[in-house]
Amino acid sequence: MTDAASHDPVSYKTAGVDIEAGDRAVDLMKEWVRKAQRPESLGGLGGFAGLFDASALRRYERPLLASATDGVGTKVAVAQRMGVHDTIGQDLVAMVVDDIVVCGAEPLFLTDYICVGKVVPERVSAIVKGIAEGCVLAGCALVGGETAEHPGLLGPEEYDVAGAATGVVEADRLLGAERIRPGDVVIGMASSGLHSNGYSLVRHVFLERAGWALDRDVPEFGRTLGEELLEPTRIYSLDCLALTRTTEVHAFAHITGGGLAGNLARVVPDHLHATLDRATWAPGPVFDAVGRVGGVTRAELEKTLNMGVGMVAVVAREAADAALTTLADRGVDAWVAGEITDRAPDAGSTGDAAAAAVTLTGDYAA
């Protein structure tokens, strides 16, 4: 039997968890968390739970709480390889709050979860900086979170992030499929790039199949491959809320995994159909590059990537011009991409729900 007394004393730190480093990370992130607050935020870092003053909901007749949770996916692997950690947090916020705003809800607060193989205070602080800045862009508060050190489960340079948020919408202002009518117009809002979906495919194409380095200059991108892949996800929540205040919006669709047709289909009623014209927009160069370099078909690209459309609004036809004006005033590139019509009786006979609800026609603009 081994004599334990003959070995150095065992501690949590020798087992791989450094509490002091965790405390240092909290100290470094405090300034960023302070910037991501709302008047309803209470307390500060260090408590067991984040606090939000729910008395603010008294102004609602019948407040409905909306919640969502998400992560960033394998885009995190690109950030780790590049050693750039202060943008991935904006991706996290976008993926969560823009799911919430789809039903017309205002995001109120968010909590994050950062799991690391080894706590490097400066790296954790950089991640939280991105999350806090994303919360500011989304108009929600960062009220708390958790940083967990998992040696043995993750390598020293590895980490993952997740978040959950809560929003509120007046019951009679709830948006969704039940509001959509024949004749409604579908407005597309430009994405900032790949956003945070499809990175398993994108990484396979560029890094594994083509063998491109992340520091490779790509002329059509106007920057390196890594810089293109790390372009932060656009946050649309305040833009969408502005639309609900100024125009007759019936529904939104956040274009994430599953692509444009797959996500728009989630808010198209069974008796209606959306027809979108590809010629009304030109996807960014990165989408063409994925297809060309990887030999990926258009059908597969459209099923996996956002193809240049990050958010869709379905509005009353008479509200389309006002909606485009509101978005233009807010610096959002937007256009009429299609319309809603009655669905043909035999639509859906193939069993493809997305195809039954949404059709993309024509070719993309050059």
TrEMBL record:
CDD domains hit by this protein: PurM (cd02196)
Domain of life according to the entry: Bacteria
Gene Ontology CC: one annotated term: cytosol
Domain (PurM-like C-terminal): residue spans on this chain: 181-343
Pfam families to which the protein is assigned, alphabetical: AIRS (PF00586), AIRS_C (PF02769)
Gene Ontology molecular-function annotations: ATP binding; phosphoribosylamine-glycine ligase activity; phosphoribosylformylglycinamidine cyclo-ligase activity
Keywords in alphabetical order: ATP-binding, Cytoplasm, Ligase, Nucleotide-binding, Purine biosynthesis
Transmembrane segments: none
SUPFAM superfamilies, A to Z: PurM C-terminal domain-like, PurM N-terminal domain-like
Compartments where found: Cytoplasm
Reaction catalysed by this enzyme: 2-formamido-N(1)-(5-O-phospho-beta-D-ribosyl)acetamidine + ATP = 5-amino-1-(5-phospho-beta-D-ribosyl)imidazole + ADP + phosphate + H(+)
Pathway the protein takes part in: Purine metabolism; IMP biosynthesis via de novo pathway; 5-amino-1-(5-phospho-D-ribosyl)imidazole from N(2)-formyl-N(1)-(5-phospho-D-ribosyl)glycinamide: step 2/2
Similarity remark: Belongs to the AIR synthase family.
Designated name of the protein: Phosphoribosylformylglycinamidine cyclo-ligase
Species the sequence originates in: Streptomyces chumphonensis
Phylogenetic placement of the source organism: Bacteria, Bacillati, Actinomycetota, Actinomycetes, Kitasatosporales
